Structures are given as structure tokens and as C-alpha cells.
Amino acid sequence: MNKIEHIGIAVKDIKTAGSLYEKLLNTSVYKVEEVASEFVKTAFLQAGPNKIELLEASSLDSAVSKFIEKKGEGIHHIAFEVDDIEAEMARLKAEGFILLNDKPKPGADNKLVCFVHPKSAGGVLVELCQENPLTP
Q: Which residues does the UniProt record annotate as the domain VOC (predicted)?
């Protein structure tokens, strides 16, 4: 794993949270997009080398909606950048970690992603991210 790619924060309202984090970090939201496969709308902010991903549920069935219902708004996951997501998934699986998907899937911000179950990662939802080589 190369570095922390971003920290994901579950929010009820992306516009309200976006305004709050723009003031807090003294920067602007640079991208908003829907991730249909995860039933979320995302907004990204960058402060120096650090990125924050705000996540608003677009369906009551989404993991983010269930997270907010159970725990309230707050840190949802930590994402790590990797060079070869499939190799990292195989390594983690061999180490006994439980992966939430068998293959990398398209995620926000032009990434391929895979999630590691919090039960096998000390209670933290971990996301692996690799730049998607199939899109510009």
C-alpha cells in the first residue's frame, strides 16, 4: 500500500457538508459524482496531499444510509492507494482478511476499488484504490 488515498465521511446532505468542509479546509469541492453501484453521491475536497470524500446516500438501501442510521454522520472508511489492486486483494485474502467483493469494481474519482470487511480489519472499513487504467 502506497499511501492514504482519501478518508470517506458519511453525510446526510452533501451540499451542507460540502460547504462546511470548504470552510474548514479552506478549499473548494473539486468533483461531485454519482456512484450508482454503491447508491451514493460523492464530493471530493483536497487540502495539500490529502483528500476527503463526502458520501451521501442516494437510496435507503445503500451501505451509507445504513451506516448513518446506525452510527450517525462521521468517518465511514479509510482508503489506501495501491499499484496492483488484484495482487493486493490476493495478498490480503491469503492473510485472512475478508473482502467485500471478489473483483475490483469501478468507484468514484476514476478508481478501481475493493473493500475489506471491518470485522477483519479491527472495526475499520478499508478501501483499496487503484487508478482505473481503462479510463483517461
A: 3-131
